[in-house]
Design goal:
Helix content is 75%, strand content 3%. By secondary structure, it is mostly helical. Strand 2 and strand 3 form a beta hairpin. Helix 8 packs across helix 10.
Length: 344
């Protein structure tokens, strides 16, 4: 469609010829000159309005730094018929300008790339942490289970290999399902899941051993508290006895001199002091032993017992739950991630 103005007779063909005759970057004067070379004369103000209209139609862009205009490479006005242009004589808000397409795309592309990078990094780190945690737990189980080096090292290597290969099998199965290889995908899933019970058993054993250790520490702490309380009472009694014995020795010396009876009283007081120091040493040893024990695992066991998740009739509930959680995270998390990467 050819567009004519009221005053300057601008048309679509003239606009195309003017834009095509300009260099990559041009200013308002260059635009007026290009139109003048085609036999069209317009004022500078009308040229500015026309440039703003072309900018709103995304045919040209403006660089505020260099104060120049640039023709859009894939501009509809250069390859396709442009839409009807408003007449030059119509008043339009000249101060309005749309955002630069290149600038908005660059900003959106940077933010999108940053979000994708952050999301990918966090996902990879989470999957790696889950695999390493499972491998470490199962390796410690295999190491403690083996009695000789000839059996220990192959067992550790075998369990570590199983933990590392199962996410790959799940990823391969998901990829096969996506590409309609149902039987091969099922075979990969069967192999991966058939190796899972051994991993769950070893993880449950290590976690339950830690919880049982915490339970034993709590029981020892209760016995230790009871013994320490009795020792404190005994120490206080001996301290009182020592004071009375020295008081009797002092009274005996004042009454009849420090004779044989006073000497016996002094010996008894010294023996009582030695016994009191022994009780004090036992109290100090009990306090040091309690400080060396793991407080975190003991408090965790107390918390589980208070919640009814560990203790009588529930000794294996928490170990199995934690082992299954770790197994699912380590197995299907990396598997889904690797499958998406391979599918991409």
């Amino acid at each position: 469609m050819t567009i004519q103005s009221h005053s300057s007779g601008l048309s679509e063909a003239i606009l195309k010829q003017a834009l095509n005759s300009l260099v990559t970057s041009f200013n308002k004067t260059d635009f007026v000159t290009a139109l003048s070379s085609l036999g069209v004369t317009i004022t500078t103000d009308k040229a500015r309005q026309e440039l703003q209209k072309l900018k709103r139609q995304s045919q040209i862009t403006f660089d505020p730094i260099t104060k120049t205009w640039t023709v859009v490479a894939a501009s509809p006005g250069l390859s396709q018929p442009v839409h009807t242009l408003p007449m030059i004589g119509v008043n339009q808000p000249s101060s309005f300008s749309s955002p630069r397409p290149g600038q908005s795309l660059a900003k959106g592309g940077f933010l999108s790339s940053f979000r994708s990078l952050a999301h990918g990094s966090i996902t990879h780190l989470a999957c790696l942490a889950a695999i390493l945690a499972l491998v470490a737990i199962n390796a410690s189980f295999a190491w403690n289970l083996g009695e000789t080096d000839g059996f220990r090292y192959p067992f550790v290597i075998g369990l570590m290999a199983c933990d590392l290969i199962r996410p790959l099998l799940i990823a391969g199965g998901l990829w096969d399902f996506a590409h309609k290889h149902i039987m091969r995908g099922l075979f990969a899933f069967v192999v991966a899941l058939s190796l899972a019970p051994l991993s769950i058993l070893s993880s449950t054993s290590v976690i339950s051993a830690a919880l049982f250790l915490g339970s034993e520490q709590n029981q020892k702490a209760e016995v230790s508290d009871s013994v320490r309380t009795n020792l404190q009472f005994e120490y206080q009694r001996l301290q009182g006895l020592v004071e009375r014995q020295w008081q009797d020795w002092e009274n005996e010396c004042k009454r009849g001199g420090c004779g044989s009876r006073a000497a016996r009283l002094a010996e008894a007081a010294k023996a009582t002091e030695i016994e009191a120091k022994q009780r004090l040493g036992e109290i100090v040893n009990l306090v040091e032993d309690s400080n060396r024990s793991s407080e975190f695992i003991a408090r965790a066991v107390k918390s589980f017992e208070a919640l009814g998740l560990f203790g009588t009739n529930r000794l294996m509930f928490i170990p199995i739950l934690l082992a299954l959680t770790l197994e699912i995270a380590a197995l299907f998390g990396p598997g889904l991630l690797l499958a998406s990467r391979r599918h991409a």
